[in-house]
Amino acid sequence: MAKSRSERAPESAAKSARASKVAAAGSARATRTPRRRLRADEAQKRILEAAEKQLTKVGPEGLRLTDLARVLGVSHPAILHHFGSREGLVAAVVRHALHTLNEQLLAALSRGPAAPGRAELMDMVAEVYGERGFARLLAWLLLSGRAAKPVRGGTDMPLKQLAEAAHALHAAKFPEARYEDTLFELQLGAIALLGDAIFGDAVRRASGAPATPATAREFRGRLAALLGARD
Amino acid sequence: MAKSRSERAPESAAKSARASKVAAAGSARATRTPRRRLRADEAQKRILEAAEKQLTKVGPEGLRLTDLARVLGVSHPAILHHFGSREGLVAAVVRHALHTLNEQLLAALSRGPAAPGRAELMDMVAEVYGERGFARLLAWLLLSGRAAKPVRGGTDMPLKQLAEAAHALHAAKFPEARYEDTLFELQLGAIALLGDAIFGDAVRRASGAPATPATAREFRGRLAALLGARD
DNA sequence: CGTTGTACTTACATGGATGTAAGCGGTAAA
DNA sequence: TTTACCGCTTACATCCATGTAAGTACAACG
Which of A24, A221, B83, B145 is the most interior residue, by most CB within 10 Å? Predict the structure, then answer.
């Protein structure tokens, strides 16, 4: 069967920006960009970061090697060269992203003041979840069934550490405080922040409020106040 | 390497169950099922329902006409015959699903007791969101950018009606109650319930709790208590 | 009963996406 | 400088999903 491939130069547009082998004959020698060749780990990092960005946008089903290659200015087999297959790339992105999510969460905690107010904590976590698109990524993974087990190789159950640390802090002031209550607050905070990143704007619109950064911040503030009502 | 397709005769299996034209020659005339032919609206309803189920599972990108056709026991052009294109089908499903979501939400409210406790309300809404997969569907739509405007043709801003009704109820007991507070409670409730349907199990696992229906119910109970703390 | 509209079928066309094969050439080690 | 490894390219194979064309047969209507 094997019908002709229509045009044979759809991909070459991006390529021309980085290596024009046609121009080497004349005087353009000096301006010719030599064919770049990165070290394997650098190339993989570059690909990984672009893939993560793409993944949070279009999800694991929507990720197209050709699109990614065009963005990166390479040919799509280059990606396959480094990651074996599309699924291999997705798995690598997921592993990397969940790992850095954990790191950023814990780092955000230790970086802040010793006992940050709940509002600041809320904003920090919201930033980690929202601004880098982790909530979207997590949602994609959970929806598509790729994140049955939270993190493959890394600190499992990161929220448990948070809960225990928070409870220790809280119990110093209120010795009779129960761990369950702290755990619930943490779970609600996490679920509400993650949910807010996905559903927040839609819910605000559906309830007649404008969907602006200001209303989102106000929501987080009220949430923090509610969670901090015990203290 | 594309393991999903496996055998090359998946579509004929279902078909053979309903119309075996090869067997008509001999004596099997009496047992032959005549080719079923539904009325257009019935066929569309059937397709729509199956498509909605599929959509909540695999998302709008993952919906495959051939898969859907196999489930329904028809050929995939039959679906195209009724909905024009894959996108047409997805759009129809979305329209239909968001419409019934609204209906069910409002129905759940009017069906319940005049002033249901927050815990019961919570469970009712959670059932609408969770059990029929509306939360998943909504999440898919929001993630893939298909639900910029909440509902095309129908009651826009359904939550606003809820908020106003709830505030009227509440203000009868506490005249100085502020609408903003009720609105926030409603938003938090919606976001937490939606977020719980997507992230709940993962968050509970990540915080060291088992992810069972019981823990989910307990979470909703605590949430209801928290939201009802004003009363 | 014959006619007719249309729900539905098979067969195919087309395009797009992943993955493979082979070779080129940059980079760095010897 | 030479050599060899390997990152990356072009060309191609293949598969799979949507959509089209044409025909078939069921059901309703005269």
Answer: B83
